[in-house]
UniProtKB/TrEMBL annotation, chain A:
Lipoprotein recorded as keyword: yes
Location of the Cation/H+ exchanger transmembrane domain: 88-486
Compartment(s): Basolateral cell membrane
Name of protein: Sodium/hydrogen exchanger
Organism from which the protein derives: Myripristis murdjan (pinecone soldierfish)
Region (Disordered): 732-790
Automatic annotation (TrEMBL), chain B:
Molecular function per GO: calcium ion binding
Name of the protein described by the UniProt record: Calcineurin-like EF-hand protein 2
Taxonomic placement: Eukaryota, Metazoa, Chordata, Craniata, Vertebrata
PANTHER family in the record: EG:114D9.1 PROTEIN-RELATED
BP term (GO), one: protein transport
Gene: chp2
Main location: membrane
Length: 790, 174
């Protein structure tokens, strides 16, 4: 008999500890289920099945078994089930870490995940079962890595990347080469000088050593991302280390294949070396080319998706993935292809797709990359437990030391050379962070795993050393980098909310510098950037961007984005009821009364009080309107998005800009400026207004003339934010009916006058957004503030 | 301010190239010869910056003096307040840019001046209303003392996150 108090012991624990307990229990459960799955091997089950079938086929002569009411058929669902279990485990772990408050600030997530992997692996081993071979190289390279890289590439901040491209390439190419040869060569030397007793190190030849060096020398993007994301370092350093980790893939690929091919033979001739250099160029540039082609294809496709908004994100994902696979097919650098594809397609795709698709893409990418990253680290832990290991003290410790030393020397040496060419030099602090941030990760492990045991007898030793280096860099360097950053007072990432001023002045300065360069006759950075921009504007944008937006200048696009963002914030902050004190709210109402001459009021926009009768009328109108719209939204198809006519009409709208202006001129003539003073927050007017601006109540088809509709315009005289609801557009679309439609009431400041078309636009954008609601997701909003092209 | 002799020679070669008449002075027409400047939206302003008010020609020292603004900043320069601000410091660069906006030299960028710049940069692609709303927004953001114009300090503040030393430097002139 369960006594109630026996369960009360849970009350002793606080909430996070309870959560942790829950998580641990789940881990144990999963740990026990997995061996269950692993226990019965697939072919046995298959055999059983065929036996059963045979039995059943001959069956009816045999004794009739009782009809199975409930049976378990694990093998039917085994593989997807296990995959889902792993993903679930990964996600729950992530949840769990963030519930424990202090832990996640001391220990980077990657370390915790590796530990979890170790635990799970250990559990499985304890249960006596075969650890599932999770760190399958194909799984890693084809499923786990692409989402992370795509996420990085799509949101790559292009401007700092391009500005520092020379530096990044130097670190990536020359730095990795240096690392590989230094480590490989010195390891070989160390192995050779080993006294002959128990070690088998003598047998390792030069080429395998160099191969090992090339595997271990590459800085890993996954690990760098995982750690650097948490320390919020300044943009320059972030892009340097991160860019290096992405671009060194080409070098790694070439070196790996080169040494692997020739390890069997034992020598590499000069010709092979030369071919290697050519191969490097082919791999790198080929990868970028493949990526760019797919990127352009994706951009072009997105031009036509205005009628099928639902599958827009799919194109982005599929084209990128195909770019990756195509590059891998030719042994080109898949990572560079993916980065190129994402970076190339982004400006054009974003101009073409709906806001919701944009949000979808962002969220899916972040979600997949997050899950992938988590899984990778967990699998690393599991694979560590699995082994096979061959621990050799000398080899491992020498490797670790050499990695560190090589990295430091490499960075210092390269910076010395690079600083001669840089305008803004890299300081010692910067160099330290770059050197310290050279983390190794799962790519190195997978490459090691890929080695053929037949050719490489010392594969296990290599793997052990690789894992040790990974653990060292991730744990030691990963954990200490945050305090070191604080200690050294390295500049942190600035919360970049790009202001319109920055944007205007930056463009101005771009033009200025281009002009100065032209005067000097110096074809520098700005000159080529300007040429590229011009080319882009003249030809490329026309091809790849649908409709009117192809002509939209960068500044305007940026301005619109800003306005939309502010509008979202306005809606989020309580629907406008709690407007910040600096902005007095004036609620202007548009009352459309068909076929009734508007009551005359003095045009100086005095502030009359609304008569009680009028208020009642307005309330009635709002109420009836709401009911109507609610009914209209009842039926919808699962596959269509909530109808967004204004979204699709963006292009039409832009085309009809002129019409709106003309229209408004007409309206102003018969205009009636009725303004309502800012009502106290709980007045029924504002409550109704809030309801009217409720996205759920949004009406689709405002064609009925007989229903007077109220447009609630929360506006402030100082900011152009206005939450216009509907009817500006309706007016725009039905210009012939505007004579009767009447009144447009504006807030009293005259600065608002010329803003009306802009309001209309802003409002229109805001309507799109009001459906999308808020975006409380991952950070990096400043990525989106980047202009289309640098 | 130490431009290396090699650079000075390069600049002088360029000066001579631009000076089609060989008069030792550059005139407006010489600048207009530079093709790319014609396509530059603010090309006229830039050319105007070379000519001191009232002057109609630019001699070589003035030419160099203006271009010296774009030398990369020497970060390690000791902050010596007795010495005048070097011409390529961040402040000087910003002042140069500011003066390009502020054509009437009253120390403020008025709304009209900002509108003018926007009109030049965005050209025919936008409506007047859009320009005005952008200008209004920009002033509203930057204008801290509410005088409806952007002073140099406000200008400087709005650009504090931008890496001016990098952005306004040409490596050529090191």
């Amino acid at each position: 008999k369960l006594h109630p108090t026996s369960l009360n012991f849970l009350g002793l624990f606080s909430l996070p500890e309870r959560a942790l307990l829950l998580v641990l229990v789940l881990v144990f459960l999963q740990g026990s289920v997995l061996p269950l799955g692993a226990a019965s091997s697939p072919d046995v089950s298959h055999q059983d099945k065929t036996d059963n079938h045979k039995v059943e086929a001959q069956g009816h002569n045999y004794t009739k078994k009782a009809f199975p009411v409930l049976s378990i058929d694990y093998h039917y669902i085994q593989t997807p089930f296990e995959i889902s279990l792993w993903v679930l485990l990964a996600s729950l772990m992530k949840l769990g870490f963030h519930l424990i408050p202090r832990l996640s600030s001391i220990v980077p997530e990657s370390c915790l995940l590796i530990v979890v992997g170790l635990l799970v692996g250990g559990l499985i081993k304890l249960a006596g079962e075969q650890v599932p071979p999770v760190m399958n190289t194909r799984l890693f390279f084809l499923c786990l890595l692409p989402p992370i890289i795509l996420d990085a590439g799509y949101f790559l901040p292009i401007r700092p990347f391009m500005e520092n491209l020379g530096t990044i390439l130097m670190f990536a190419v020359v730095g990795t080469l240096w690392n590989a040869f230094f480590i490989g060569g010195l390891l070989y030397a160390v192995c050779q000088i080993q006294p002959d007793n128990p070690s088998s190190l003598h047998q390792i030849e030069l080429l395998p050593c160099l191969l090992f060096g090339s595997i271990i020398s590459a800085v890993d993007p996954v690990a760098v991302l995982a750690v650097f994301e948490e320390i919020h370092i300044n943009e320059l350093l972030h892009i340097l280390v991160f860019g290096e980790s992405l671009l060194n893939d080409a070098v790694t690929v070439v070196l790996y294949h080169l040494f692997e091919e020739y390890s069997g033979i034992g020598t590499v001739s000069v010709l092979d070396g030369f071919l290697g250099v050519i191969s490097f160029l082919v791999v790198a540039l080929g990868g970028v080319l493949v990526g760019a082609i797919y990127g352009i294809l994706a951009a072009f496709t997105s031009r036509f998706t205005s009628h099928t908004r639902v599958i827009e994100p799919l194109f982005v994902f599929v084209y990128s993935y195909m770019a990756y696979l195509s590059a891998e097919m030719f042994h080109l650098s898949g990572i560079m292809a993916l980065i190129a594809c994402g970076a190339v397609m982004r400006p054009y795709v974003e101009a073409n797709i709906s806001h919701k698709s944009h949000t979808t893409i962002k969220y899916f990418l972040k979600m997949w990359s997050s899950v992938s990253e988590t899984l990778i680290f967990i699998f690393l832990g599991v694979a560590t437990v699995d082994g096979p290991h061959n621990w050799n003290w000398t080899f491992v410790t020498v490797t670790v030391i050499l990695c560190l030393v090589a990295r430091v020397i490499g960075v210092v040496g390269l910076t010395y050379v690079i600083n001669k060419f840089r305008i803004v030099k890299l300081t010692t602090k910067d160099q330290f962070i770059v050197a310290y941030g050279g983390l190794r990760g799962a790519i190195a492990f997978s490459l090691g795993f890929l080695l053929d045991p037949a050719h490489f007898a010392m594969r296990e030793m290599f793997l052990t050393a690789i894992i040790t280096v990974i653990f060292f860099t991730v744990f030691v360097q990963g954990m200490t980098i945050k305090p070191l950053v604080e200690l050294l007072a390295v500049k942190k990432k600035q919360e970049a909310k790009r202001s319109i001023n920055e944007e205007i002045h930056t463009q101005f300065l771009d033009h200025l510098l281009t002009g100065i360069e032209d005067i000097c006759g110096h074809y520098g950075h700005h000159h080529w950037k300007d040429k590229l921009n011009r080319f882009n504007k003249k030809y490329v944008k026309k091809c790849l961007i649908a409709g009117e937006r192809s002509k939209e200048p960068q500044l305007i696009a940026f301005y619109h984005k800003m306005e939309m963002k502010q509008a979202i914030e306005l809606v989020e902050s309580g629907g406008g009821v709690k407007l910040p004190a600096a902005m007095p709210s004036t609620v202007s109402m548009q009352n459309i009364q068909p076929k009734k001459p508007p009551p005359a009021l003095p045009p100086e926009r005095a502030l009359p009080q609304l008569s009680k009768g009028r208020e009642e009328e307005i309330r009635k109108i709002l109420r009836s309107n709401l009911q109507r719209t609610r009914q209209r939204l009842r039926s919808y198809n699962r596959h269509t998005l909530v109808a967004d006519p204004y979204e699709d009409g963006l292009n039409d709208f832009l085309i009809k800009k002129q019409k709106i202006i003309e229209l408004e001129k007409k309206i102003t003539e018969m205009n009636n400026y009725l303004t309502v003073p800012s009502a106290p927050p709980d007045s029924p007017t504002i409550t109704r207004a809030r309801l009217a601006s409720d996205p759920q109540a949004y009406s689709v088809k405002p064609t009925s003339d007989s229903v007077p509709t109220i447009q609630v315009d929360l506006a402030s005289p100082q900011s152009p934010d206005s939450v216009n609801l509907m009817d500006e557009f309706r007016n725009a679309r039905q210009p012939e009916q505007d004579e009767d439609r009447g009144l447009m009431m504006k807030p009293p400041s005259e600065a608002k006058g010329p803003k009306r078309p802009e309001d209309a636009e802003g409002a229109k954008d805001q309507q799109r957004l009001m459906r999308c609601l808020s975006d409380p997701g991952p950070s990096a909003d400043e990525d989106e503030d980047e202009p289309f092209l640098p | 301010m130490k431009i290396s002799p090699a650079h000075i020679i390069r600049l002088y070669d360029r000066f001579e190239f631009l000076d089609k008449e060989g008069s030792g002075q550059l005139r407006l027409e010489d600048f207009a010869e530079v093709k790319e400047l014609a396509m530059n939206p603010i090309g006229d302003r830039i050319i105007g910056a070379f000519f001191s008010p009232g002057q109609e020609t630019v001699d070589f020292p003035s030419f160099v003096r203006i271009l010296a603004h774009f030398r990369p900043t020497d970060k390690n320069r000791a902050k010596d307040s007795t010495q005048p601000e070097p011409v390529n410091s961040r402040t000087s660069k910003l002042k140069f840019a500011f003066q390009l906006y502020d054509q009437d030299r009253d120390g403020k960028i008025s709304r009209a001046e900002l509108l003018q710049v926007l009109r030049e940069m965005l050209g025919m692609q936008v409506t007047e209303e859009q320009l005005e709303s952008i200008a209004d927004r920009a002033i509203q953001e930057a204008d801290l003392d509410r005088d409806d114009a952007i002073s140099f300090e406000e200008f400087r503040k709005s650009l504090e996150k931008v890496n001016i030393e990098h952005k306004m430097s040409i490596r050529f002139l090191r």
